[in-house]
Amino acid sequence: MAKRHLKVTGDLGRVVFMEYDLRNTPSLEESVRHSDIVYNLVGRDFPTKNFDLEDVNVEGAERIAEAVAKYDIDRFIHVSSYNADKNSPSAFFRTKGRGEEVVRSIFPETTIVRPAPVFGFEDKLLHKLAGHSLFTSNHMQERFWPVHSIDIGSGLAAMAEDDSTAAETFELYGPKNYSMAEIAALVDREIIKHRRHINLPPRVLKPLLDMYNKLIYWSKTSADSVDREFIDQKIDPKAKTFKDLGIEPAEIANYTFHYLQNYRSSSFYDLPPATEREKREEKKYWHVIDDQ
């Protein structure tokens, strides 16, 4: 029942869920052995009591790649992360970089995909900013190119149809660079609320998040998230992009109303998003509130 909402369009025999364990090699082999193409979407950006980042992003990716190589699957697409680098100060980016090296060494035709921070339904970007105030350490100054989840899906589907993408690396990112603070301002304007995000020094926030991750079993954060706040997104100039797939990525500012309307109060719920003309007019005036 927990996975029912993940079922895509398809009748019995078309879509088949396979139960597997990332540490159980036979279950992985059984999951891929009859496939023409395998997508590895397994990843984690915070540790748990059962799996740390190394277990998931490196060793797990290695076992999946070995299963793909054993059964000589035609295509293997490994979804990594932006800023994946084995020398990164962030444990998440570091393990993602090592994972890329491992899968390429086992299956050289692996297509590696590095998506930027993703926005869409159930994302960890817009909904996190709209849902509550956040504790940060870098005044939300990290910069990146947010990308629409629909565009990522379209890109992954296009790769399946184009064998020339084998053994290539793709950086999939949006058309405009933002800081986290700029996206927070977009969110506040759309939900017509102001979230007060609190900045704490890394030496204070990292121990708190580390403790929270270990004591709260449903925690989805860690001390490493603080390190990532100080690392801007870097694009590999040698990697291919959406342009090579014939896809025009969407701009996040055009979708905030679509994804965030439910965070508005009942007083403003049906208020339509501002038109471009209204946005230009708004900039012409100073609004003075006389509350005396």
Structural class: alpha/beta
Most strands sheet: 4 strands, parallel
Mean pLDDT: 91
Task: Provide the succession of SSEs.
Answer: HEHEHEEHEEEHEEHEHHHHH
How many β-strand stretches? 10
How far the N terminus sits from the C terminus, by CA atoms, comes to 57 Å
Strand content: 5-15%
Inertia-based shape: globular
Number of helices: 11
Strand-helix topology:
Blueprint: H1 25-32, E1 37-40, H2 53-70, E2 75-79, H3 91-106, E3 111-115, E4 118-119, H4 126-131, E5 135-136, E6 143-144, E7 147-148, H5 149-161, E8 169-172, E9 178-179, H6 180-191, E10 198-199, H7 202-215, H8 224-229, H9 242-245, H10 256-260, H11 276-282
Parallel strand pairs: 1-2, 2-3, 3-8, 4-7, 5-10
Antiparallel strand pairs: 6-9
Helix pairs in contact: 1-2, 2-3
Q: How would you characterize the overall build of this protein?
A:
The mean pLDDT is about 90. With about 290 residues, the chain is an alpha/beta fold. It has helices spanning about 25-30, 55-70, 90-105, 125-130, 150-160, 180-190, 200-215, 225-230, 240-245, 255-260, 275-280; strands spanning about 35-40, 75-80, 110-115, 120, 135, 145, 145-150, 170, 180, 200. The strands form four sheets. A four-stranded parallel sheet has the order 1-2-3-8, with helices on both faces. Helix 2 (about 55-70) links the parallel strand 1 and strand 2 (about 75-80). The protein contains eleven helices and ten strands. It is globular.
